[in-house]
Amino acid sequence: MPKTVVLTGASDGIGAAAARRLVDDGHHVVVVGRSAVKTKAVADELGVRHFVADFADLHQVRTLAAQLAAHCPRLDVLVNNAGAIFGDRHVTADGFEETFQVNYLAPFLLTNLLLDTLLASRALVVQTSSNAARLSARVDLTDLDNARDYSPVRAYGNAKLELVLFTKELHDRYHEQGLSSVAFHPGGVASNFARTSRSPVGALFRTPVPRLFFQSPQKAARQLLRFVTPTPEDGIVSGAYYENGRPRTIKAPPIGPQLWEATAALLDLNRRE
After folding, report:
1. How do residues 181-198 score in pLDDT, each as one tens digit?
2. CA 245 to CA 77: how far, in whole Å?
3. Percent of the chain scored above 70 by pLDDT?
């Protein structure tokens, strides 16, 4: 049966590749991106609806949530794929460090604003995380904004670990009501990711290395598609973090509930019991 799938970060890379495959397979896809020109180009190519939102602006995220709720009375899969790594520490107009906001805070907000629709649809939430969540993260509930000892790689790792903790907490809070959630590391991808970043990762992506040694967006998208359209043999585990197609444990303090409450407070969200 065709599914309704919303993909953020769908104007390029993994998101665009996944959207193409899902449309080819007969699913109803909505693409979301930061660039109006690039997002419209993908939508026009595929003949699907698109919305534009910059996750560095939480007003745009709230507007996006309202647009999606109106356009998608049923939403089978929400893919929080948008993300970025930056260079120098920068605070957005909303008052948050940009890496934290774009990679974690905005997806948390979007998911919570769509929660009624997701629960009614018994939906799946997929988070594009990173192995940086276990390699370079050190989440501190007293410094979610990365104000102390900032580094772009650690800030990115922190945000991706926060996504993993959010994924598990979504499962713990709402799986009994039919909601499922997974996070995954797509691996190294030869895409435009990070090319404009003034970070060590950005420097790497401006070399020939990704093109020569990393996988294509199409191959990376297969991992995402496995969650969206699983076979009975896949045995997808809700609440889990995946690397190389298998659940992987990340050593992290059990702060999921506290992180959720702290994040909801930052966003002035009405807390759900």
Report:
1. 999 998 765 555 544 545
2. 19
3. 88
User: CA geometry: angle at 191 spanning 156 and 14, to 5°?
Assistant: 80
Where in the chain are the domains? 4-266
The candidate with the shortest Cα–Cα distance to 55, out of 109, 100, 8, 102, is 102
In terms of residues, how long is the chain?
Answer: 273
Assign a CATH topology to domain 4-266. Answer: Rossmann fold (3.40.50)
| Beta-ladder partners of 29 | 5
β-partners of residue 183 are 127, 241
On whether the CB atoms of residues 61 and 42 are closer than 8 A, the answer is no
| 9: its two tokens | 């970060």
- The C-alpha angle 129, 147, 144, rounded to 5 degrees, equals 45
Average pLDDT rounded to a whole number, residues 45-72:
98
| Structure tokens that stand for 173 in this block | 């809070």
**pLDDT digits over 124-157, tens only?**
999 999 988 888 888 999 999 999 989 999 999 9
Burial of 160-174, coded b for 16+ CB within 10 Å and e otherwise, reads: bbbbbbbbbbbbebb
Joined tokens for residue 245: 């197609």
Query: What is the per-residue pLDDT for 212?
Result: 45
Cα separation, 162 vs 157, whole angstroms: 8
Best CA proximity match to 188, nearest among 160, 209, 167: 209
Residue 258, Cα to own-chain centre: how many angstroms? Answer: 20
Order of strands across the sheet that contains 246-247: 49-52, 28-33, 4-7, 77-80, 124-128, 180-185, 241-243, 246-247
Residues annotated as catalytic are 156
pLDDT band at 217 (very low <50, low <70, confident <90, very high): confident
